[in-house]
Amino acid sequence: MHRRSLFGAGAGLIAAPALAQQHQHHSPLRPAEASPSPFANVFQGGQPHHLTDAQTAQRVIDSPAPPGPPGRWVPRAAMPIPRSEMAWATEWAGRMHVVGGYGEGRFDRAYHTVYVPAEDRWYDAAPLPRGANHVAVVALGGQVYALGGFIEQNRRCDDLAFAYDVEADRWRPIARLPRPRGAAAAVALDGRIHLIGGATDPAPERASIGWHEVYDPKTDQWELRRPLPAARDHVGCVAHAGLIHVVGGRFNTFQYNTAMHHVYLPARDTWIEKAPMPTARSGHGMVIYRGRFFCMGGEGGIIERGQTLEARVHGQMESYDPLTDTWQRHAPMPTPRHAVAAVTLGEWIHVAGGGAVLGGAVQSAVHEAFTLG
What's the CA gap between 272 and 280, in Å, rounded? Predict the structure, then answer.
């Protein structure tokens, strides 16, 4: 296996001088207009889509967790294109980066859009050197890392890895993953990047994995760590106080969602269990906000022989206190979605895009933000 990719970096984008002056500490990016349509259907060439009553009925918001402060949601600038299955998002220097995903009738998009909260506006950045969905992304040291992903609809993963220089608006290849995978979780801890879980080939099986590998940007090398005890993908994952929390996800398909909550202890290279998430789900967002872990959205259901027997698109907003190992609930998402882009920007949790119905058929440009005030 070749240890490095030979793909070239994405072309930089040129913006107006006024924009460059306005953001002296960021590379110039190209403004992108908000999508006029909140939903689109990838199977219909990315055409605008109106949710049916049956599709809207998939939404569930009830949580068994005890009540916490409700907080509030407000609309923000819609994404430029309805998208889903990006495999979440990352934050750097107060901006949200959303990479790859489904959109405009394809599953292998190389989109890279950046949200600037001070302007409530989206910008186009240099695209990925190759398109993919369910790409794991994380920011560290002025770089946005994009790891693995699927080339077809939620299957046929690859081992390519790239780093994006925020200042230069340019991607470069880095050491390939030791093993190909998509829908994995990526978090930065102590100057390294942990890539955990996900799913891998053969494509007809698309089985969940518990692989845990660590990338060192200084040496451009990968090392193995103790795997996640319960192999799964589409998890929520954050690093906090020197530990890594992996919450929820699915065993192979959303029919087998879990609420499990595992914590990785780096000093011991081992895992322990903590209080499970109140609502079992996968494809949910997970962020740190005011010292708590907030989980929102997700999906679950049962499909047998092509027939949907049960469909749930989650809108629950539940948060975890790592000091007391307890959960509580908050105001649910106005527009339940799964496979969302979710990050904390200042005093707001931003949740953009995502799937509006069970599975990957309908993408969303909806962007909503939550605050406890």
Answer: 19
Residues 286/323, Cβ–Cβ less than 8 Å? no
- 99 has which bridge partners? 112
Q: Identify whether 80 is preceded by a cis peptide bond (ω within 30 of 0).
A: no
Q: What's the CATH class of domain 52-371?
A: mainly beta
Which residues face 236 on adjacent strands?
247
Instruction: List the Cα angle 223/229/235 in 5-degree steps.
Output: 85
First to last CA, the chain: 51
Q: What angle do CA 174, 247, 67 make, to 5 degrees?
A: 140
357-359-361 Cα angle (round to 5): 70
| Average pLDDT, 10 consecutive residues per value, the chain (373 residues) | 32 33 58 97 96 97 98 98 92 98 95 98 97 97 98 94 97 98 98 98 92 98 98 98 98 96 98 98 98 98 90 98 98 98 98 96 98 96
Pairing of strands 307-314, 59-60: parallel
Residue 244 CA to residue 271 CA, distance in Å, equals 9
- Matching residue, tokens 């040129």: 14
Handedness of CA 15, 17, 21, 27 (dihedral sign): positive
Q: Give 243's contacts (C-beta < 8 A, 6+ positions apart).
A: 263, 264, 265, 266
In whole angstroms, give the CA distance from residue 303 to residue 254. Answer: 9
Rounded to an integer, what distance in angstroms lies between the CA atom of residue 16 and that of residue 168?
16
Distance CA 366, CA 202 (A): 33
Residue at token pair 């296996």: 1
Question: How many Å apart are CA 354 and CA 234, to the nearest integer?
Answer: 13
- Amino acid in the structure at residue 280: A
Q: What is the DSSP string of 288-333?
A: EETTEEEEE--EEEEEETTEEEEEEEE--EEEEETTTTEEEEEPPP
Residues paired with residue 162 on neighbouring β-strands, in sequence order:
146, 173
Domain boundaries, the chain: 52-371
Single-letter residue type at 195: L
- H or E element that contains 21: helix 17-22
Instruction: Please give the structure tokens belonging to residue 10.
Output: 């994405």
Tell me the CB-side half-sphere exposure of residue 98, using CA atoms within 13 A: 34
Tokens found for residue 173: 């290849």
| Contact by Cβ (8 Å): 331, 315 | no
